[in-house]
Structure formats: C-alpha cells, structure tokens
C-alpha cells in the first residue's frame, strides 16, 4: 500500500512540474488566456485524502498505461480539453524515453531518477536486473561443469599427448604436499625436532653467505652444506621435430675421467672407491646413484634420499635453457647412455615420494618420466594408474587412458582395466546423476569387462588382500575363476605386478561389496552364454600373443614396490633393483 501511495504522490508532483514548464514557455499567450491557464493547472492535492480513498488505490498500477487511464477520467466541471492534453505529456515522455528520444528531456524533472531508485528499493519495479542476469548466464556457458564431470576425457579430446602429460610444478615437491596433508605447523614442528641435517634442509636457502645455491630448481631443494655446482654436466639441443624438442646430456673431459674411475670401482664392488670419486667430483651422477643404492640396502634411507636429491640437483642444473619437462614437449632418448641417469634418478625419486605418502608428487614425477620418452623404458605405465587413484585424480586417469598413444588399448592392461573401473566408481559417487552423460559406461560394466578379460586377477586379489567374505568361497569355486589362466607369460607377469601393488585398495569395504556383485554377475553371464567367455578369451589371446615375457626389460628397470619374491629377474646379477 505504501508503494502505491508513493507512486500517486510522485505522479501528482510530476504533473505540477510539467505544467509549470509549459507556463514559462507560453509567454505570448499568457495575457489572453488567464482563465484557461487557471483551468489548465490542477488544484492542490490534499495529502490526507490518500488515507480516505482506499478504493481509488486499485486504479493506480505500476505501469504507464494505468496512469494514462487515470488522467483520462472525467474531472471537475472547470476542466477542459487543455487539461487532458497536458496530462498526456507523462505518457508521451515515458514512451519516447523507451525509444531513446530526447524531445521532451527539458521537461523531465530531476527527481525522477531518485524516485526510480527509491521504487526499486521498495521492490515496486526492477525486473530488468533479473533479465540482464539471465542473459549473462546464457552467454557465459554455465553447462561446462556438466561436461567436465562426465566422460572424463571426452570433453577435451582435441588435447595432445604433451598436454595430457604436462606437469604441475606446485605438486612436485614432497614438502609442499606434506604441508597440504598435515598442515604447516605439524611439518615445521617435526623438522625442528629432527636432526641438524633436516634443519639445514629447511633453512638452506636462507643462510646468506653460506649458501652457494643461487639457482632455483623445481625437483628438489638444495641443502646449504652441498658443494657449489661445478658445471660438470651440460645439455644440448639435438633436434626439433613436430613441435617436440629432443635433448641429450654431454660430458666434458673431466667428467669422463671420473667415469673411468667409477667403472673401475664398480667392477671390483669397491664402495670406498666410489666414495673417493665423489670426494673429487661431488656431482658425478653415476656415483651418487650407486651410493644411494648402497645406503638403501644398508638401511640408511635418509642418506639414500639425500644422495638421490643431490643427483637430481646436478642433473637439473645442467638443463638446457629450452629444456622444460613440465610442459610435456621435451624428449630424451633413453638409449643414449648420457641420458639414462636422469631416468634412473627420477624413478628412485618417485619411489621415495611414494614411501613418504606423497602420491600426488609421485604422480607428477611419473608423468614427467613418461613424457621424456614415449617408449616408457622404466615402466611408468605400470604405476601411473596407481598413483592417480591414490591422489584421487580420477578424471585425469580417464582422460589419460582415452588420449594417450595412437590407439586406445591401455584398458587391455590389467592395471588399467581395474583402475579405470575404480576411477569411474568414485566419479559416480561424487557426481550427481543429472550431470552424468547418458553415453557413459557405468563402473559396474567396466568392472565386469575387467573380470571377463582377466579372470585370473580375481583369485590373486582375494588371496593377496586377503578377502575373507563367505561369498568368495562360492565365487572362486566356479569354473570360470577356478580354472582361469593367463595364457601368456607377459600377461601373468602383469597381473602379478598389479596385484602386488594394488591389493590394499581392494580392502576397502565399499569396493569389496562392489567386486562381489560384479563377480556374481559375471558368473550369471557365463552360465547363460558360454560364447561370451570364449569371445573374451580370444581378445585376451590376441592382445598378448607372445610366448615370451615382453615386459621383462622395462619391469626390471622399474621395480618400484619391492615385490622381489614374484619378480622373474630375481637373482639376476644385472638386475637394478628399486
């Protein structure tokens, strides 16, 4: 009611103001038309009449048409046609204002703007803001979250492999991830209570004149007691092809002399000889790698980690100005002997990060390893899915499996078959049903496909975890799982690798129930159609045809999780353990 009364008062004041403007502009007709001028101006309005005329309030609406109807009503006997023409001016003013015309802008009162603002505050008018907001929503594209949370890699299928394997530098260091997990106060308190080496590691970059390490690195933080970088390594650009930059490390004559001394000490298993080489050449990377292995098998893991960090620091200081592995477009050929130390040091560093619980940092290092050489000489493909699950990077794992390589065959590997199903399981749990695309394969279907393709993996998972639910006895007695075979040494090896690494994931109660339901559905499918099992056996035989273990070499180089008892190369003197 207050808004209507305010509207009526403002209309009356507007009529009075417009009439006074007309009086000042008609000076020539003022003397001859005094009586008509008196009739033209309306009588003063009694404000107290507003309280008594309740029925008249319904006639005053919030648009200009109703105000025009009010002005066209029959007035008093003294009113003539001049009053009607004068009262029509506000209506014309409003219409011409909508058409962006300014013919009667000189008659527009200054109080109109403040009146509109006041009416907007009273919610009498103001529908334009809502329409403008809707138009902004229409142009801003608010359906992006619906696309991103759906098929994983489908919404950015145009991205190339280098973009998929690009590394986020803020997740590379273990110290940063530990602070995100436990908080800065906890990590700082632990480091303050540790030994002096840990304290120097924390404050090494702030020691002023005692710190010689002025170069900023992304992999590790150099300690203040490390010697100055001696420039014993360098890197050169070999070639640029199809947007990819190929590099290789180069060694000066002094480094080659240290290399000969190292080879002599290694052939005689002389640890003191390797230490002597490091005393003269503190950044000889092969000696640092060998010394890290010696510390590891002696049980001194902290000194082993320090040796690997020192090796990575030396390798990073030698990088070419154009070498930026975080972008995913830099390549190093593993077949070049000078490039191998970087792969081995990154692999050891990834293992150390995993042991510290920094799975996201380990994932970034694994992506860097895979981007440096697409042939995957150190077996990064056999652990990148595990790190993705542990780091909860489910969407990235689906994108990687969909986009990496020229063919879409990663899902045939046992680790990707089960890991992609687990990733889809958690995405379905965290994503609303309305935002999931209709063409998305469900997690249950992916798990059933994994069990049909690799039935031997189920028995090994149940035995290794172990899963002690009563339903497993009945499931494993079925012929499809009881007599399951890999069919090739390569596949059997890959299944064993996956089980030894990922069996802890299947101890989660929600995944156990989900696995039981999928296994029962597989049994039902096999009982109804024997041809289904034969078709999957053909796929398995076609994917793993060789009678030899094709993955011995990369897996020998990438032994990451300590499954020595089941490793085929156990006892091999050339085996380089991790």
Please explain how this structure is put together.
The chain has 578 residues and is mainly alpha-helical. The chain is 56% helix and 3% strand. α18 packs antiparallel against α19 (359-372) and α21 packs across α22 (414-430).
The portion of residues forming beta strands comes to: under 5%
Task: Give a short account of the largest sheet.
Answer: 3 strands, mixed
Radius of gyration computed on alpha carbons: 39 Å
The low-confidence runs, each spanning 5 or more residues with pLDDT under 50, are: 30-42, 50-159, 201-211, 556-578
SS content category: mainly alpha
- The coarse overall form would be globular
Mean of residue pLDDT? 74
Binned, the helix content reads 55-70%
The number of helices is 30
Q: Major sheet: order of its strands? A: 1-2-3
DSSP, total strands: 3
Distance between the termini: 82 Å
Keywords:
globular; mainly alpha; 578 residues; disordered C terminus
Write the layout of secondary structure elements.
Blueprint: H1 2-25, H2 34-40, H3 49-52, H4 64-71, H5 81-87, H6 89-98, H7 111-121, H8 128-140, H9 144-148, H10 161-164, H11 174-182, H12 184-193, H13 196-203, E1 234-241, E2 244-250, H14 253-267, H15 271-280, H16 285-297, H17 301-317, E3 330-332, H18 340-355, H19 359-372, H20 384-390, H21 394-403, H22 414-430, H23 443-453, H24 455-464, H25 471-476, H26 479-482, H27 489-502, H28 509-528, H29 530-543, H30 552-557
Helix pairs in contact: 11-12, 14-15, 15-16, 16-17, 17-18, 18-19, 19-20, 21-22, 22-23, 23-24, 23-28, 24-27, 28-29
